[in-house]
Design brief:
rod-shaped
């Protein structure tokens, strides 16, 4: 019986020593040690599960962050492309602005030239109006000169006719009277040749002046004809 009790106790102790620790006379209580270790193992198991859960969560977060990083890289590349496009657009805009400024300068130059031409047109218009007035005056002067020339021609014709009649009359004059008759005759009749020469001289001077007037009038008419 004693042997059996000893075996039962031994088996009980072996069951309690589930972790296989070696026996010692003054060691700790095996049951308490086993409970402590069991609790410790449970805590470790919970901690491991907690860490594994956190590791899984970290992996998920890492994947999310990796996706976000990829998205940020794509966004960065897109921003870089947009920046390059913006720089190219800015360069193109600057070139267009230069071309526009050049066009503006050309427009300003054309505007100034247009203003100069307008002033020139106004000046030419004023000169044209003056020329029209001068032409009208020249037309009037031409008409008056023509009338005066016609009058002078008529007077010249009448003078020539009178001179011809005087010469014809002198040719047909009677023979000179005797010496006694000359004394009694008037002074104008005593020397008809001298009187005729005097008349011819006067008509000659008159004809010369008339010729000068005619030449002057002809010159004025030629000038008037050149104007028109």
């Amino acid at each position: 019986m004693a042997f059996e009790r000893k075996n039962v106790k031994t088996n009980q102790e072996d069951a309690e020593n589930i972790y296989g620790f070696s026996r010692s006379v003054k060691g700790y209580n095996a049951k308490e040690v086993n409970e402590f270790i069991s609790n410790l193992m449970k805590n470790n198991s919970n901690a491991i599960k907690n860490y594994e859960s956190r590791i899984s969560e970290f992996k998920d977060n890492n994947e999310i962050l990796s996706c976000e990083i990829e998205q940020l890289k794509e966004a960065s590349n897109k921003h870089q492309q947009n920046a390059k496009s913006a720089i190219a657009a800015a360069d193109e805009t600057r070139a267009k602005l230069k071309a526009i400024q050049k066009d503006i300068d050309q427009v300003q130059s054309i505007k100034e030239e247009n203003e100069r031409l307008n002033r020139l047109v106004e000046s030419l218009t004023s000169e044209r109006d003056i020329a029209k007035r001068d032409a009208m005056r020249a037309e009037v002067d031409k008409k008056h000169a023509k009338e005066k020339l016609d009058g002078v021609k008529k007077e010249l014709s009448e003078t020539k006719k009178a001179l011809a009649e005087a010469l014809e009359s002198a040719k047909n004059a009677p023979a000179p009277e005797k010496e006694s008759e000359k004394k009694e005759a008037p002074a104008s009749v005593q020397n008809p040749d001298a009187e005729l020469e005097k008349m011819v001289g006067a008509y000659t001077v008159h004809l010369r002046k008339t010729r000068q007037i005619v030449d002057s009038l002809v010159e004025q008419l030629n000038k008037a004809n050149d104007i028109f």
